Amino acid sequence: MTIAFPGLLLDVPVTAVRNLGILAHVDAGKTTVTERILFLTGEVHKRGEVHDGTTVTDFDSQERDRGITIFAAAVSCGWRGHRLNLIDTPGHVDFADEVERSLRVLDGAVAVFDAVAGVEPQSESVWRQADRYGVPRLAFVNKLDRAGADLDAAVASIRERLGVVPLVVQLPIGAEDGFTGVVDLVRMRALVWPDGSERCVEGPVPPELAEEARRRRRRLEEAVSELHPLALEEFCAGAALRDATLVRALRDLTLAGEGVVVLCGAAYRNRGIEPLLDAVTAYLPSPLDVPPVRGTYDGAQRVRAADPAEPFAGLVFKVTTGGRGRLTSVRVYSGSLRKGDVVLDAGTGRAERVGRVLRVQADRQEEVEQAVAGDIVAVIGLKAARTGTTLCAPGAPLVLEPPSAAEPVVSVA
Ligand code: GDP
C-alpha cells in the first residue's frame, strides 16, 4: 500500500530546501532517527528496524553485516512544504573521510546524543569536524526512555565537552519508561505521544509542569538574551511578539554557531521526531542562507551563488553502482542540471553527457526534469566522474574548493 502525501516533493522554492545530515556516535540512534524521519514523512511505508537489517539507509550488505553506517546515502523527503535532502554520514571514526565528504555538501545537521551517555568521544570528534566546515547544528538527545536517561546531564556535557551554549527548547514530560512527551518551551504547548501512536497530540501544558516550564522558558530567554542583544531589546520592549522573537533569535544563533538548540526524544518509540523536523525547517539554513561556494580556475578565484541563473557548478559526493548502473550523487551549487546537458568534469578535463537526473527517495527514485542550485540529486550516465570532483558548465570551468578544509582539526582533551 502506498501512503500518498501529494505535493510534498513537488517543486519547492530553494528557501524551503534543507540539505541535512544526521551526525552521531555509533549507537546513539542515528539510523533509528533517520528511519523515523523517513517513516513520518511518508516515504517509507513499512517501517524498517535496525536489528533485522531492513532499514533503508543501511542498504549496503557490508554495512548490514557490521551494523554500522559505512556509506553515506542521500534521500529526499518532504515535511510541511519543505524538501529535506537527508545525507547520511558515518558515525564511526574509521570513516572520517566520508564524514568530511558529507559535511562538504550539508547546509545543516542534527547531532544525535544518547541521553544516558551524553557526549561521547566520537560524537565530539564529529562535532569538531562539523565546526571546521561551519555546519550549523541542532542537538537531539535521544533515548530518553532508557533507564538512567538524564536530559540535564546530557545538556551539561554538551556545554562542557563541546564548549557551546545549549539552548534547551523542550521540557520532557515523564522520565525513562514513563517518558511520554515534551513541553515545547517556545510555544508553551505540550506534545504527547500516546502509547503505540506514531503521531503526537498537542495540548495545553499539564498544570503540574506549568511552573517548571515557565522557569525553563525564562532560562532559555536569558541564555538567548546574553548572546543576542537585539532579542534582549525586543524581549524588554513587550510580550506581544515574544515567541516570534525567540524563534528568530534561535535561528540567528544556530546559523552563527553561537548556540545550539537542544531537543529531546526517544526515536525508537517515535517520540520527538515531529518537533525535530519542525526545528530543522525553523532553525537550520536553506542553501540561500549559507555563503556562496568558491572555486578556482587558471589561478583565478571564482564565486558561485545558489542562483539558477549562474553557470552550472556541482560537487560529486558519492558514486554507487547498483541495479540501474552507475549512480552519481551531486550537490548542485549554482545553475541547473538537466537531462542531456554536457558537463565538464574538472578532475579529468573530460566532458560527459548527463543521462538522467533522479531524486532518490527512501524506496524509489524519481526522474526529474532538472535540478537547480541548492538541490541534491543523483545522475545516471556519467561514466568517469569520481567522488570529490567538480562538475561544471564547459563554458565556465572551475574547481570547487573545500570550505576551510586547510584548518587543523581542533582536538579537545
Ligand atoms: P546508530 O549506530 O547511531 O545508527 O544507532 P541505531 O539507530 O542503530 O541505534 C542503536 C541501538 O539503540 C539500536 O539497538 C536501537 O534500537 C537503539 N535505540 C535507538 N533509539 C532508541 C531510543 O530512543 N530508545 C531506546 N531505548 N533505544 C534506542
UniProtKB/TrEMBL annotation:
Belongs to the TRAFAC class translation factor GTPase superfamily. Classic translation factor GTPase family. EF-G/EF-2 subfamily. The gene is fusA. GO terms for molecular function: translation elongation factor activity. Keywords: Cytoplasm, Elongation factor, GTP-binding, Nucleotide-binding, Protein biosynthesis. This is Elongation factor G. The lineage of its organism: Bacteria, Bacillati, Actinomycetota, Actinomycetes, Kitasatosporales. Residues 15-288 form the Tr-type G domain. It comes from the Bacteria. GTP binds at residues 24-31, 88-92, 142-145. Its main location: cytoplasm. Catalyzes the GTP-dependent ribosomal translocation step during translation elongation. During this step, the ribosome changes from the pre-translocational (PRE) to the post-translocational (POST) state as the newly formed A-site-bound peptidyl-tRNA and P-site-bound deacylated tRNA move to the P and E sites, respectively. Catalyzes the coordinated movement of the two tRNA molecules, the mRNA and conformational changes in the ribosome. The chain holds residues 1 to 413 of 689 of the full protein. It is found in: Cytoplasm.
